[in-house]
Design a protein that fits this description.
Its cofactor is [4Fe-4S] cluster. Catalyzes the condensation of iminoaspartate with dihydroxyacetone phosphate to form quinolinate. This is Quinolinate synthase. By secondary structure, this protein is an alpha/beta fold. It has three domains: 118 residues, 3-Layer(aba) Sandwich (Rossmann fold); 127 residues, NadA-like (Rossmann fold); 80 residues, Rossmann fold (3-Layer(aba) Sandwich). 43% of the residues lie in helices and 14% in strands. The radius of gyration is 21 Å and the shape is globular. The termini are far apart. The mean pLDDT is 97. The structure holds 1,3-dihydroxyacetonephosphate and iron/sulfur cluster (SF4).
């Protein structure tokens, strides 16, 4: 029964004490979030993993790339556990290492490897956190860096101090929205496709490019539309709209603000009683904010419930199962990144952690 499941989780947490830390992403369901020692966006959770070096086990209630990142940053004597191994991210799966290598080689052939007069290299790879450890390692090896939705502009500025252009993967929308906010015109943010001759672009377009976009997207955030924003504004005069930067650019342009899951939370926190706020992001976060602020009208822009189906795979039953294992001295569902991949990936992650606005 549910009661028995929750009793097991509470008992295991008590038994394991400080040897255990549970991290929960904002998109996790409330039945799971209630057990998290830290709840945050993907950047905050990467840092949270570092704040508890005493914990032997880091149980990550989130998706696979987040657990990999925690494993890369965690100490050698810490282990990271993902309660359900099927909790992936479809966007992260849209960029595989071979395809990125192929695109990279074509681009290196075009741009060469000689730095310009200011010492900037012709091209730098930048990966969104939502990517495999192998791609973070690729960035580490090629002078590149990782970004999250909360620091993408800072990271791109860091990149442009060191490179003339950026190859940005996997999320085209975060790349396009961030470049646009930095004043880079659309003709300098072409989308490339490794399956098309010349990456699907003319040589002239590629030469003038500043941010070359991979074709990945988030199936949750691509559902949001400008029509939904117009409808919300028509229904509620003065309605404020905030969306995640994984939404398509017209949606971000039509919203009042765009930001990471934590930026969405702080936007709501800074609002006033009586305010009406329409949010373009995953439903678990929107519903939690609506429950936390009952004196405001807070709703999801998409009237059809849009959960992230993979985040949702972390059911309390899996959490109970991995915690029971730890109590019995059995490690279940450990995420362990190969040492050589982890070493290179850590270089790219540490560049991100050190890049300050
Ligand atoms: P945040 O970095 O904003 O938490 O986003 C992670 C994510 O997967 C959004 O879809
Ligand atoms: Fe991946 Fe989208 Fe789910 Fe975030 S919401 S984990 S980007 S599929």
């Amino acid at each position: 029964s549910d009661d028995e499941l929750h009793a097991r989780i509470r008992a295991a947490k008590k038994t394991l004490g400080d040897k255990l830390v549970i991290l929960g992403h904002f998109y996790q369901r409330d039945e799971v979030v209630q057990y998290a020692d830290f709840v945050g966006d993907s950047f905050q959770l990467a840092n949270a993993a570092l704040t508890r070096p005493d914990a032997e086990s880091i149980v990550f209630c989130g998706v696979h790339f987040m657990a990999e990142t925690a494993d890369i940053l965690a100490g050698a004597d810490q282990r990271v556990i993902l309660p359900n191994l099927a909790a992936g991210c479809s966007m992260a799966d849209m960029a595989d290492e071979d395809a990125v290598e192929t695109a990279w080689e074509e681009l290196v052939e075009l741009y060469g490897t000689e730095p310009d007069a200011d010492g900037r290299m012709p091209l730098m790879p930048v990966t969104y956190m939502n990517s495999s450890a192998a791609l973070k390692a690729f960035c580490g090896r090629h002078g590149g860096i990782v970004c999250t939705s909360s620091n993408a502009a800072t990271v791109l500025e860091w990149a442009f101090e060191r490179a003339q252009r950026v190859l940005f993967f996997p999320d085209q929308h975060l790349g396009r929205n961030t470049a646009s906010a930095m004043g880079i015109p659309p003709e300098q943010t072409p989308m490339i496709n490794v399956h098309k001759p010349g990456l699907g672009q003319t040589e002239e377009t590629l030469r003038d490019a500043k941010v070359l976009l991979w074709h990945g997207f988030c199936s949750v955030h691509k559902r949001f539309t400008v029509a939904q924003i117009e409808q919300a504004r028509a229904q509620y005069e003065g309605c404020k709209v905030i969306v995640h930067p994984e939404c398509p650019k017209p949606v971000v342009d039509a919203a009042d603000a765009a930001g990471s899951t934590d930026a969405i939370r702080t936007f709501v926190e800074a609002s006033e009683p009586g305010d009406v706020i329409a949010i373009g992001t995953e439903i678990n976060l929107v519903n939690r904010l609506a429950a936390q602020y009952p004196d405001r009208t807070i709703f999801c822009l998409d009237p059809v419930v849009c959960p992230c189906s993979t985040m949702y795979r972390i059911h309390p039953g899996y959490l109970a199962w991995v915690l029971d294992g730890l109590v019995d001295g059995e490690v279940r569902n450990q995420i362990s990144v190969d040492a050589d991949v982890a070493g290179d990936a850590k270089v790219a992650l540490e560049r991100m952690l050190a890049a300050k606005p």
